[in-house]
Write the structure tokens for this entry.
Amino acid sequence: MTVANEYIPGNSPIHSMTPLAKIIWTSVVMILALLFNHPLYLLALFFSVLLVAKIAGVLKVLISTLKSLFLFSLILILLQVLFTKEGEVIFYITEYLPVTKNAVYLGTAMGLRMMAAVLSFLIFLLTTRFKDIIQTLTNNLKLPIDYVFIFMTALRFIPTFLNEIKQVKEAQSCRGCSLDGWNPLVKIKAYAAVALPLVLVSLQKADKLAMAMETRGCGSGPRTCYREQKMSAADLSLVFISILLAVFAVLARLNGYGTYQY
Amino acid sequence: MYKLNNLTFYYKNTEVPALKNINLEIAHGEFLGIIGHSGSGKSTLAKCLNGIIPHYQHGRMRGQVLFNGNPTETLSIADISRSVGSVFDDPESHLITMEVEQELIFGLENMAVDPKEMQIKVENALEAVGIAHLRNRSINTLSGGQKQRLAIAAALAVEPKILVLDEPTSELDPIGSKEIYNLLAKFNKKGITVVLIDQKVELLARYASRIIVLNQGEIILEGSPREIFSADEKLNKAGVDIPQVTKLIKMLGFRYGKLPISVDEGAACILENMGIGK
Amino acid sequence: MISNPIIQVKDLCQNLDENHFILNKINLTIGSGEFLALVGQNGAGKTTLAKHFNGLLKPTSGKVLVDNLNTKYVKVSELAQKVGYVFQNPDHQIFHNSVEKEISFGLKYLNLPAEEVKRRTDDALKAVGLVDYRYAHPYSLSRGQRQRVALASVLVLKPNVLVLDEPTTGLDYRESMQIMNMIRSLNNQGHTIIMITHDMSLVSTFAKRVVVLNKGEILLDGPVREVLSHQEILSETFLEIPPISRLADKLSVIGIPKNLLTVEEVYRALCDVRGAEK
């Protein structure tokens, strides 16, 4: 699986918005996703997120991630089918394994919820510069710099980590260690051969990074800030629309819309 | 700038000292090369210079490291970093951010540099290492050599007086290594003191103004490249190679005014000894 | 023609995407028992090509035959008994608490009798000179020793071919020479050696055949002496001719043959010239 989580330069309207506006939008998407459990409402939310991805011009990059998320959603539906027995039966897989409407709806809802939330967050990451995120988190949202750096370093490490996994896997398979067999017991054992060196190498890398941060004066006292960000009209309107939507959604939800009775 | 007095250092839980009775002075404007076998204490020495020891890595330390007259124990790593830029091997692990510009800004912000000055400092540092055109790139898209240049630029951005580099060319190919050496020579000419740890004797011989050789935590040789490479036995004991040309001249037993350490010097020496050319 | 081919590469292409290739139409036959160096700048495609030899990468088009088996249809873990691959960083594979266990790990998958496992482990320990470290924890060893553990852990599978990716990176001179001498004696015992490097001094001292890669294509392929004589082409690839060879070239005015590779060769040639004069 490949994860697209890094800034892609672009000139779309989404790119030019301030991180704060985008963070608020992402949060609203997440609130909406959690608020509703009707598959149709969630589908609409999901498509609205896709539309934003399209406007930002990052839809293409997200395809592979979407595929993985889609697969994961299918698993969620399957799990629901296995464990939800109530409700109207659509059809039977076997005599003892009915597929109920509830199960399909619930699974679909969960899948869509997850996809909408993850995608909106990825769109935020793909259209926002690393440095702007740090600045927004520390300056606008007043989060402590240490925590922001832990978070950002974790993100920075994703590609490194994926690359390390690949290298360790290759090194072990070159010693005759088979990682693609079918026997789960053998497989678990084989993965110890990947996990252990990976942990050790990652610890080495983390130590090196910490050392580098020290020598660059990290955490030495008051910092300055390269560029302050100002909210533009477009930003403000996005924030306004997002918050309005959220309020509207909460009201609608309180009045009984958007829920599916299981 | 630096004065090391009888410095001895033990890493935690070890009985063998990583550094033993080191006495060393580093003067302004030097290009100091440090060589030695692996485990000889080279990296430990570098860490003592930039304050990683004793502030980040702990252990038992005896003796003193004075930086501009102040013991490093009383300074923080950040204090030292204002005048000492550190560059390590394996740039991939040592770059902190995901974007070129941000990598430089990171240090400047930490050091509380006035934001108005950042623009020009970033520009200058990137220019100095020849990657100004990569300013808006993602670090993941850079080659190994470009990453190492970026690491150097990030150290340079805060305008340090000294650069301490620990095997900065170990992952680079010969041309990449040479380019880094050329850069360092350029900065050195402009007055930056360079302390460079490396295994590449051919390059050190050409660029360093002074070399120290470490063996099992002790300085066993110290002097100009020519002085160093004439001490075969000690070098052999320390597991350090000597330049090929120098090796040949010694095998031939030729007379020389100053020990040849480059191809041209070697050719001249041989021709003279064989009675041809002047 | 190579009489006893062990690896045959035919029209191998490896594409990044539709418009970019990493390897373009590589044709190469490697005979059993050769000592071949794969050289080129960082990013020339050396490692990518080598990873085709044991099936880690499958060709986009063209094919790779190892011992007449098409790598496309054989698992890497099975090919491991024909082609051993030693990576640059030994820490990517070490995870046992003793050298012995680490080395014998790959044998678990072969269902061999216990005495065979022991014999192979003993042989491998001997081949890399780590018999005394059998029960040591791999992380207590130096980088050079860990590199040898990695080599041994591949050797136990008794592959005919050994691919070594930058075997001396991160090692000091003494450790480098140790591992290179071990590789040479493995070659003398019949192993085919394929060494990826950009250190031309290493190539001229140890390898017999060189393949120069540049931008994904084979630029030169032949005996070391012949390839090194194409200085102009080599300089295009930013590879450096060893200083001693450059010195020999400058001495051609006094009858020193061109294309000499090592200090010893130049020494002997100079002695000959001197002898003739007297």
Observations:
- Residues 184-215 of chain A form the longest helix (32 residues).
